[in-house]
Amino acid sequence: MGSVKPIFRDLNADDPEPETTEIESLCMNCHENGMTRLLLTKIPFFKELVLMSFTCEHCGYQNNEIQSGAPVADKGVRISLNVMTKKDLNRQVVKSDYTSVKIAELDFEIPSKSQKGEVTTVEGIIDRSITGLEQDQPLRRIQFPETAAQIDDFINKLKSLKEVETPFVLILEDISGNSFIENPNAPRVDSSCTTSYFTRSKEQNHELGIFTQDEIIEEKESNILHPIEEGEFTLDDLEGEVLQFPTNCPSCNSPCQTNMKMTNIPHFKEVVIMATNCDICGLKTNEVKSGSGIEPKGLKIEVDVKSKEDFSRDVLKSETCSLSIPQLDLEVGPHALGGRFTTIEGLLQAMKDQLCDPKHSHMFGDSVDPKSKKEFETFLEKFDEILKGNLMVTVILDDPAGNSYIQTMRDDDQPDDNLRILHYERSFDQNEELGLNDLNTENYEA
User: Fold this and answer.
1) What gap in Å lies between CA 399 and CA 320, rounded to an integer?
2) Do strands 21-26 and 33-42 pair parallel, antiparallel, or not at all (unpaired)?
3) Could you give the angle at the alpha carbon of 322 between the alpha carbons of 321 and 328, nearest 5°?
4) What is the pTM for the complete model shown?
5) Rg of the Cα atoms in the chain
6) Are the CB atoms for 324 and 375 separated by under 8 Å?
7) pLDDT band at 359 (very low <50, low <70, confident <90, very high)
């Protein structure tokens, strides 16, 4: 009996069985039967995808598209790229069916759902737009010469963008959250690209096929759930019990079990520890989520890592906390490492392991630019020096929700000389990210 393989597997030229699925389907060009091939795979630093390729041997028509194989993201994504040089035109772009593309300088927009999802480049987006506009130009020049002249003028403007004589801004907005623009300088910060997340409206959720329970069932009470009687399940019972629930593996998407337990961190607060074990691909993950609410103020913690004593500090990094190391020009977003309870050394080692893993990094393939690969190797060498204690760095945790923690070396729980803690007022955008701007705690039944 052969070994069980993950549903979404890494692309590998040496894999004798890539497990493509072939489906006979109708050609929309000649109405004969063609062949559609499906491949389930993963994109490093992104998510699972379904690649689809259609070929008709009768008329030669071909069509390629992608669809997300991962769950719909909790929030939509807006990515803004400043295209400064021709190198930016080569950035890989993943766009879904729900992605709208805008070029602010030309007041140009490709509406969502007007094109199928695809893996392309910035230049590929421009070329496809030019091809679409040129498609009916010969007939249009005869029937509507003035309109055709205006379109020709606009096509020339699009073509001039590929010369990048002047910088321009490309904006992707995707309510499904399944779009992505490559960072060629990874793992360093991409100064030319800005990514923000937004909460979908009710109409946008409906467009994606997402409905709340109240919208599906008109009755307020459901026979599936019932209220817990007072004293039936106490906090002590909850903290002493390990709960299990079925889920999907975040790596291979195979069914597995997640264990969850509530515990208390001394001198801090209650947290929920979640551990997932996948028997298919062997993945083991641990994640920590806050068991209490959002703090009144945001929290910024800076710790100077100078000795082995600093490496042993306990750290709680919540899922809303971003991490940065100024000496490496490195920033890690809040969702990259998730929430975890570890040490400074464990946190740094987790970052390095994720960067070095060929399954998650695009810096190990044969097609990588040699200069970029050399810079990446130099970056990892510096990381090794940090873990050996030969290079002093400052680790900065910035948590708008205030649910992160680093252990102090003093007995009175006050920050020591190498630890600095700052509480700050959150900005409007940070409150929006946490969903606090629309939160109403008074007269909400009215």
Assistant:
1) 6
2) antiparallel
3) 150
4) 0.52
5) 26
6) no
7) low
